[in-house]
């Protein structure tokens, strides 16, 4: 699908349909974001930064992996949404090199019997790492297939023993103002916050991710740890986690605070429920054969309906978008 010259990062208009990226940009402009004027590392430096990551092998997990053709490593690591580093798809690869990922701790607290703060190295050893190939579907209408390395989020949550009052799990991401040019502008309220229902977080598909393509997670992809919740739009899979809170009442996520009519709490991939400004019925798979490759149909729950549809039995999925 991508047509690139060597060393060239294509603008959103070359990959995402114009109606999508233009309307998204207009919304962001209204939110008051100005372009981040910071130094631009060389492309070769950025590529080495991603390619030379330390190996992080996991055990194959065919039960939880899809057989779709995987998106090339280069596309996975250079075409990202991580607004703390800027709103252009290439900004995270340009600027995330400065993100400090050591030392790193994650605090797990709230409605738990054993609140704890975990060092990243302790988290890496908490459960066996698995290789899982997941689809990722962005709310903007594009998708990827990524081989993540991690283990079920439930393994961490069980360590803190949720109380009977715990119904929701809130995730808070890091803010490093000196290293994140995007947080200087009011695109969203920082830090970035996302949340799941507890049963969603405990589902075996919900993955705590430490790597991709058998390597340590690159900064631009959410190092040193992030979520992967494959049946939901990508913004639900929060990056660079520093705090997890278990709560009795549903929290408000960052995108809900910014535009609740467009980005709901559930954000399940649903081809039958359009975004207010574009259809969700089809998607463009990044890295496929060329710019004019036909779009593919979007699958309900991103193709994971057999595993997760029971979580929403009896719910109106249009009202609970």
Q: Can you describe this structure?
A:
- With 321 residues, the protein is α+β, with helices and mostly antiparallel strands.
- The chain is 19% helix and 21% strand.
- It is built from nine helices and 13 strands.
- The strands form two sheets. Strands 1, 4, 5, 8, 9, 10, 12 and 13 form an eight-stranded mixed beta sheet that branches. It has a five-stranded mixed beta sheet with strand order 3-2-11-6-7.
- The longest helix has 14 residues.
- It is globular and about 50 Å long.
- The N terminus is likely disordered.
Q: Briefly, what is this?
A:
The protein is built from 9 helices and 13 strands.
SSE pattern, N- to C-terminal: HHEHHEEHEEHEEHEEEEHEEH
Shape: globular
Number of helices: 9
List how many beta strands DSSP finds: 13
- Measured between the Cα atoms of the first and last residue, the distance is 29 Å
Taking all Cα atoms into account, the compactness measure Rg is 19 Å
Strand content: 15-25%
Report low-confidence residues grouped into runs of 5 or more: 1-48
Furnish the topology, listing elements before pairings:
Layout: H1 18-31, H2 43-51, E1 59-60, H3 73-78, H4 91-95, E2 105-110, E3 116-119, H5 120-124, E4 130-137, E5 142-152, H6 153-160, E6 168-173, E7 193-197, H7 198-201, E8 207-212, E9 215-216, E10 226-228, E11 241-247, H8 254-259, E12 282-285, E13 296-297, H9 305-308
Parallel strand pairs: 1-4, 2-11, 5-12
Antiparallel strand pairs: 2-3, 4-5, 5-8, 6-7, 6-11, 8-9, 8-10, 12-13
């Amino acid at each position: 699908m991508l047509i690139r010259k060597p060393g060239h990062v294509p603008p959103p208009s070359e990959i995402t349909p114009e109606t999508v990226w233009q309307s998204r940009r207009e919304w962001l402009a209204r939110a008051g974001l100005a372009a981040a004027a910071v130094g631009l590392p060389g492309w070769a430096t950025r590529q080495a930064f991603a390619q030379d990551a330390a190996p992080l092998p996991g055990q194959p997990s065919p039960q939880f992996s899809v057989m779709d053709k995987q998106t090339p490593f280069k596309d996975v690591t250079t075409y990202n949404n991580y607004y703390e580093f800027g709103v252009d798809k290439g900004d995270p690869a340009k600027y995330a090199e400065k993100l400090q990922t050591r030392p790193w701790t994650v605090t797990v607290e709230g409605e738990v019997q054993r609140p704890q703060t975990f060092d990243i190295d302790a988290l890496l050893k908490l459960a066996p790492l698995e290789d899982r190939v997941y689809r990722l579907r962005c709310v903007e209408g594009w998708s990827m297939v990524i081989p993540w390395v991690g283990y079920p989020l439930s393994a961490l949550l069980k360590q803190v023993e949720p109380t009977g009052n715990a119904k929701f799990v809130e995730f808070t991401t890091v803010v490093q103002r000196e290293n994140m040019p995007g947080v200087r502008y009011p695109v969203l309220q920082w830090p970035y916050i996302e949340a799941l229902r507890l049963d969603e977080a405990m589902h075996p598909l919900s993955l705590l991710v430490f790597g991709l393509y058998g390597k340590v997670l690159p900064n631009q992809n959410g190092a040193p740890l992030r979520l992967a919740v494959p049946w939901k739009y990508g913004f639900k899979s929060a990056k660079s986690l520093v705090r997890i809170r278990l709560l009795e009442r549903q929290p408000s996520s960052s995108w809900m605070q910014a535009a609740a009519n467009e980005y709901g709490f559930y954000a399940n991939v649903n081809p039958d429920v359009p975004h207010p400004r574009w259809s969700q019925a089809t998607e463009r798979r990044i890295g496929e054969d060329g710019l004019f490759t036909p779009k593919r149909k979007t699958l309900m729950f991103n193709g994971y309906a057999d595993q997760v549809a029971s979580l929403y039995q009896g719910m109106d999925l249009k009202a609970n978008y």
